[in-house]
Design goal:
By secondary structure, the protein is an alpha/beta fold. It has one domain: 3-Layer(aba) Sandwich (Rossmann fold), CATH 3.40.50. The chain is 40% helix and 24% strand. The strands form 2 sheets. The chain has a 6-stranded mixed beta sheet, with helices on both faces. A hairpin with a 2-residue loop joins strand 9 and strand 10. Helix 3 runs parallel beside helix 5. The longest helix has 19 residues. 36% of the residues are buried. Bound molecules: adenosine-5'-triphosphate (ATP). Adenosine-5'-triphosphate binds next to helix 1. It comes from Brevibacillus gelatini. GO terms for molecular function: ATP binding; ATP hydrolysis activity. This is ATP-binding cassette domain-containing protein. InterPro entries: AAA+_ATPase (IPR003593), ABC_transporter-like_ATP-bd (IPR003439), ABC_transporter-like_CS (IPR017871), P-loop_NTPase (IPR027417).
Amino acid sequence: MHSVMEIESLGKKVLSAASTWLFHDLNAIISEPAMIGILGKSGQGKSTLLRILGRLLPPDSGTIRLNKKEMTQWDSCAWRMKVSYVAQQAIMLPGTVEDNLRTVSVLHQRPFDQKLARALCEQLHLEQVDWSKSAEQLSGGEKQRLALIRTLLLQPDVLLLDEVTASLDTASKQAAQQLLVDLHTRTGTTILWVTHDLEEARSSCQRIWFMADHQLQADLPSHSFFQSPPTIQARDFLQSAHAHAAREVHS
Ligand SMILES: Nc1ncnc2c1ncn2[C@@H]1O[C@H](COP(=O)(O)OP(=O)(O)OP(=O)(O)O)[C@@H](O)[C@H]1O
């Protein structure tokens, strides 16, 4: 059977108290390319999970297999080319917008695909941005989109997104969501997407992972999770998120 990624008994301890688990015994199989929304209250370890999957942090227990091969059997650079993480706070590399766009090809000694870079900039409404401008001068939302494009140019098999649309205005957010759904449909890129925007998860993702009580409490098709949240924590989480969204609308 084909398998994109298998996560087995994965655990991470809380830094400050080495005997306490942030999460433990996390098991999941991604047997075919998918878009998976990762939901849960703040502090459940969603970002930490993504960083472990992206090999930016070591787990304290368990294993991860990519294409049936254990993480430890992979060269870390080869892993990061296939499984790429886009952080919540976009980090710009020193230099211009173009320097940032070219990073991937420089790092991995590949030709720079200028046509693809231009097309991605256009899709994310960055076509007006001057590539010779210092990347540090971009707005927060522009930096976030540039960081996403930089990673997309790597064309990873698995894309790890950490609240990448949180700092975007509505139009840019919708453009990013559309681009990611199209990317998944066109190329079969698997996308693991941490978001606090339930509508984003519902409309873009086929599957939901819900983290609570130091565990992956649910791994369900998106419609099942939203229609029949499987645990008390999931019900409470959806209720409080809906109440928060309603307050935002009326404020
Ligand atoms: N390297 C690490 N090892 C263990 N715990 C960490 C590490 N880095 C951060 N933490 C802690 O893990 C906890 C969960 O953080 P994390 O950012 O993963 O949660 P989250 O579910 O993504 O939260 P949010 O939704 O607020 O972004 C925090 O208390 C954080 O201090």
